Amino acid sequence: MRCFLAAFCVFSTILLHLLSATTASVTRPRGVDLRNIGFYDPAKPFVCLDSKKKIDFSQVNDDYCDCEDGTDEPGTAACAVGKFFCEDSGYVSKLIPSSRVNDAICDCCDGSDEYASSTKCPNDCMERGRQMREERERMRKLVQEGQGMRQKMAEEGQVLKRDKQARLEQLEKERAELELKDEELQRRKEEAERPEKEAKEKHEKTWKDVKERLRQEKEQGEAKELFTSIDTNQNLHLEAHELAVRTEYEKLANNDGEFSEEEAKEILGEAYVTFQGFLDTVWPKLRDTFRDHAAAPADSNADPDSQEEKKVGVLSGSSLGSAAVEVGRAGVSWRMPILGGHWTALEDRRDRRAHPHEPVGTEGSW
Questions:
Q1: What's the start-to-end Cα distance of the chain, in Å?
Q2: Using CA of residue 250, residue 303, residue 295, residue 228, what is the dihedral sign?
Q3: Quick one: pLDDT at residue 166?
Q4: Are β-strands 322-323 and 238-239 bridged in parallel, bridged antiparallel, or unpaired?
Q5: Taking the mean position of all CA atoms in its chain, how far away is CA 188?
Q6: pLDDT of amino acid 12
Q7: 3-state class (DSSP) for residue 327
Q8: How many angstroms separate the CA atoms of 23 and 19, rounded?
Q9: Is the pLDDT of residue 191 over 70?
Q10: What is the pTM of this model?
Q11: Kind of pairing between the strands at 362-363 and 54-55
């Protein structure tokens, strides 16, 4: 960029000197552009540049427009489209509309456009040229200074980029090391937690099996209690006539207010069933009614001690172990192991007059 500006300044200076020399040695009509001087030969007729119309050379600058392009009147205002050439030696040459010739306004810095007007235009082309050159020099220095700053900033940017790149590489290395440490710690954590996890899963499975077994045992206990209470002749066969007297189950038939043996037989599916058959086919039909009837509020005049209640106590131990709870109901007992160092004792107190032979739940021991 600096070389270009220097070359341009040298070229401008040489061009100005050439133009001055040409002007001094070549006679040309007023206002003719130096680039078109070859078309204006006083020894030949003038040819209009656009239409090739020929006129006598004496008609050039005669203040009458003969050519449509105005080339025959470069130094007068006769043609509206004509152009007047300001030589402006020492500054920058230019073309102005010929209508501005002798309009009392100085358009050329050398005053050549007002040669026949009352306005006297000073020739300040050299001063303007000096100011122009000073401005160009100022711009050159400014550009040079800007280029220096740009170069400095580019070098600083490269240094900063290298520093950032090195920092990034260091951070990447540290991240890789931390990831390895994290993986190792995660592996150790999983190894440390594996026994506990396996023990927990085993305990949960055991507890799930226990709950299912307790549910089944409870189901069988309730079914046994109902079977025994209906089997009044204690022959281990539940017969239709025994079920028919239990009017609370009449709603399972046609719910007409009467519970016949035929309706009871329809519930049993046959004349009588054993306990196993009762458990498989009849108990699912009677279960909800049996539980609703068992959960019904007791008589308000009944002895408070006859109300069923459940007391739950929590004991704790200092080490893992197991405990068992026995709960008696209608001749059936369950044992419930509790893992984890804690166990629950259940006490089921029932009306001893209504259930004289039913055992009371006892607490298991460690």
A1: 99
A2: negative
A3: 95
A4: unpaired
A5: 35
A6: 55
A7: strand
A8: 6
A9: yes
A10: 0.40
A11: unpaired
